[in-house]
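Holo prediction. Input below; ligand is nicotinamide-adenine-dinucleotide.
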Amino acid sequence: MSLPRHALVTGGSSGIGKAIAQRLASAGHSVTICGRDSARLQEAAKDLSDHGAPVTSLIADVSDPRQVRELVRQAVETNGPIGILVNNAGRNGGGKTAELTDELWRDVLSTNLDSVFYVTREVLARGGIHEVDHGRIINIASTAGKQGVLLAAPYSASKHGVVGFTKAVGKELAPQGIAMNAVCPGYVETPMASRVRQAYAGAWDTTEAEVLSAFEAKIPLGRYSTPDEVASLVEYLTTEGAASITAQALNVCGGLGNF
Ligand code: NAD
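Structure of the complex:
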């Protein structure tokens, strides 16, 4: 069973976040998505609405604490106290470590890790989550948050940080009735996945198709997961039946990682 609540999904205009917004809106929750690009947000909101999943879209860069404060204020003003927070926004990024720039390192860490802290802190402080029964915070980490990924040190470091943050804050919030978990996708077919394959094709001087074959060969299921397969675990974690699952990091990866 799932009590209807207001769900804030960061980076909900694409890939996994959009699939999560679709599932949560279809389950009867009021959904707010955010992103940095107004045109992409509007396009996603129209597409979701056309598929019977209306959402509110707000512009915000979640790596900026001032914009996060305004995002949460506007979201609460529009749809009421936030009962479900999905920290999904993120970016890929890596390369040979000796060649990484300060700018890339900082942007990957601030987009993937600082943002999870900023949005979580704001939702706890002023988002009204304590006023709502069955509060849930779900952080989209990665199997790269549990094992090192070659040529992706900033990404792996950021996602290990998200897993650690989740485990610590999950323990803090459990006595307050708020469950907090990380969902760790493996390879999921999204625009980001395509960018990742292009980066490896450049680094290994091969084609994107060859990289895809090499990655698929590592996955026991033999294929990438779909955004909706990730979204279905997120939806389950919002249900009353999932109340005792907290401070965990759960994989959706076709068997890629079993840790
Ligand atoms: P995507 O590129 O399709 O979507 C990412 C979304 O985040 C976009 O809507 C983008 O606009 C938004 N975003 C990025 N930076 C932002 C910022 N500073 N402020 C606001 N919004 C921002 O990627 P995806 O594959 O759907 O990834 C979603 C999440 O899943 C990410 O956290 C990613 O690390 C994680 N993940 C993806 C995969 C995969 O294989 N696709 C695997 C493991 C984890």
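The pocket of nicotinamide-adenine-dinucleotide is lined by residues 10-11, 13-17, 34-36, 61-63, 88-91, 111, 140, 142, 185, 187-188, 190-193 (CB under 6 Å). That is the main takeaway for now.
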